[in-house]
Amino acid sequence: AAPPGRDGARVVSAPDVASAGVGDPAHASSVSAAAVARPSAMRIAPDLALLATSIAAALGVARLTQAPTATRVVVPVVAVVVVGHLATTSTRRVRAPVPVVLVAGLVTVALTTVWGQLWSATVSGLPTATTWSVFVDRLDAAGSVIRSNPTPVPATAGVVLCLALGSGLVAVLGATLWAWQESRPQRGANRSPRPLVALVPSFGLLCYASLLSSEIDRVQATFAYLGGALVFVVAADRPATARRGRARGPGPGRRAASD
Predict the structure, then answer these.
(1) 245 contact partners, CB below 8 Å, separation of at least 6
(2) Spatial distance between the Cα atoms of 233 and 175, rounded to a whole number of angstroms
(3) According to the model, what pLDDT value does residue 41 have?
(4) pTM of the full predicted structure?
(5) Distance between CA atoms of 74 and 58, rounded to whole angstroms?
(6) Contact indicator for 199, 46 with CB cutoff of 8 Å
(7) What is the band of 165 on the pLDDT scale with cuts at 50, 70, 90?
(8) Is the distance from CB of 201 to CB of 174 less than 8 angstroms?
(9) What are the residues facing 153 on neighbouring strands?
(10) Which residues contact 43 (CB under 8 A, 6 or more apart)?
(11) How far apart are CA 112 and CA 86, in angstroms?
(12) How far is Cα of residue 61 from the mean position of the Cα atoms in its chain?
């Protein structure tokens, strides 16, 4: 350590800073674990927040039925959204290309919809020509119900099938757009992902439901979505802020210590 300066303050030298924690294995391991956990949490937080916005938009679509809180409506819709989103983000985490991420999400949504609502039309879970025929018949029946009834419409099996499938596809598209933004090459410190791009599909679904919902819980659904979207934007911006901080280099205190 250097002697006190002119103002009486003790100047800490680089060896003093570097020696802090040296020789303490427990401290070193805790610091290392924290350093690993922090980036992981920063990567997962945007995915969870984006999932929350997709669920909020899907529940908004459920308001178009006469039983928006019924288990037979909410469970299939939320299940397809969650499974599709998780399949998409999990595929991206293994560094798959964005087209592969999209295909994985679409296939998962299709299989989840078939297994959840058309299981009796499959052969031990395997879709067949009969499965496709039943699927088309339910879509036709849902179209007839939607055209002949003002909102809210009866929550028939075909209507629930359409809501679940549409909500799941929107969730997959949003997660794929976020994966595309994350995979963009970082050219410069200010080139960061644009989280608002990933919100376009779910926001479109929310607007569609709000226009046709006959004002049933419209305000509550809008605030729930906007809250999730705000959390997503903040969480998505944190890794970019950290990258910009690293690109600027260490602060004055660290440079002084290293000198």
Answers:
(1) none
(2) 14
(3) 57
(4) 0.75
(5) 9
(6) no
(7) very high
(8) yes
(9) 65
(10) 239
(11) 12
(12) 18
